[in-house]
Design goal:
Helix content is 30%, strand content 38%.
């Protein structure tokens, strides 16, 4: 079950972006029309970017040192509706504690009547020579990945009851502009620790199982996570073209998030390891979130076909590609 969930996560992201918008200018009707149009998805293309800028201030009561954590990602995403296929190509650049690193990622998901296969290539500049990365592979039965069932589920959602899930969208503007200059409807929502808990509770109710049980988390871990989520604020903006009602962009950021609880926990954790019991010195840690945001910008350059590179097929055929199912079994055995 867990393997299936892990595999479906990237595929679900691509499926969701195949769903378009065709609506009248109210938040509820936009979402309702989005669900209706998801029953007939179209090929999709989008550019995904991530920006992360975090300062970690470490003090000993007299002096404070600042460590920077910077990350930028840029990925091109393609998704085809019939037969379902998707690709993600791009790179993540990291600068952590003065060390620069670039991770190249290419993922291809292709489906047939028999199976849904995923091929992923990763290359880390810190450990791999150029062009000498690693391929991984996974495959599930087509019966385990029913695209139409996912689309039917999306179209069956009653968006007038989203408030019961703790999520409320508002129509902020009927003439907003995004980076490409197109006039758009702007729908916004905010997720905080309170409505996130409501959402999780509702999902657990529908699933008939607690998330902590599915993830095998003990009560202490669950309590710690809930405390660290206190102060969370996720801002979501959807831009939808006023003429075509197609998605223009999605912007997500954590502006306004209060990290007091996280800073307190990290300070306690660091102090327990590094502070001497007979010393008056107490190590303090303050995480400052300068920017953590991501953007999906939809384009008109949707692919007509997605082809798995020959090198990926050859890596699988020769046994050089790591099978994710085998890797998951190894990790599970090691944890027992």
């Amino acid at each position: 079950m867990k393997k299936r969930i892990l595999f479906l996560l990237p595929a679900l992201g691509a499926v969701s972006m195949l769903c378009g918008f065709d609506s009248v200018p109210t938040a509820e009707s936009v979402l309702e029309k989005a669900a209706e149009s998801s029953a007939s998805p179209e090929n999709m293309s989008a550019d995904f970017t991530l920006n992360c800028d975090i300062d970690v201030n470490i003090g000993d009561g007299e002096t404070t040192s600042t460590l920077d954590i910077l990350a930028n990602a840029d990925f091109d995403i393609q998704a085809i509706a019939d037969p379902f296929a998707s690709s993600v190509e791009g790179a993540l650049t990291l600068s952590t504690f003065g060390v620069d690193e670039e991770i190249t990622v290419k993922t291809y998901i292709v489906s047939s009547d028999e199976s849904v296969d995923t091929y992923t290539y990763t290359e880390d500049s810190a450990s791999d020579e150029a062009g000498e990365g690693t391929w991984t592979y996974s495959s599930v039965s087509a019966d385990e990945f029913d695209l139409q069932a996912l689309l039917d589920l999306s179209s069956s959602i009653d968006y007038s009851q989203l408030d019961e899930l703790g999520l409320t969208f508002e129509l902020v503007s009927a003439a907003a502009e995004y980076t490409n200059g197109s006039e758009s409807y702007l729908l916004s929502a905010v997720i905080d620790s309170s409505n996130l808990r409501t959402f999780i509770d509702k999902c657990e109710e529908l699933a008939g199982e607690e998330l902590s049980d599915e993830l095998e988390l003990d009560e202490e871990t669950v309590s710690m996570i809930e405390e660290m989520l206190d102060g969370l604020k996720i801002n979501i903006d959807y831009y939808i073209d006023t003429t075509t009602y197609r998605p223009v962009a999605v912007h997500i950021d954590l502006d306004g998030t209060d990290l007091t609880a996280i800073n307190s926990y990290v300070t306690q954790l660091i102090s327990s390891y590094y502070d001497s019991g007979d010393s008056d010195t107490t190590t303090t840690v303050e995480i400052v979130l300068n920017d953590l945001s991501m953007d999906y910008v939809f384009t008109d350059e949707a692919a007509e076909e997605i082809t798995v590179p020959d090198e990926a097929l050859e890596a699988v055929a020769s046994g050089e590609a790591e099978d994710l199912a085998d890797l998951a079994d190894e990790l599970s055995d090691a944890a027992e």
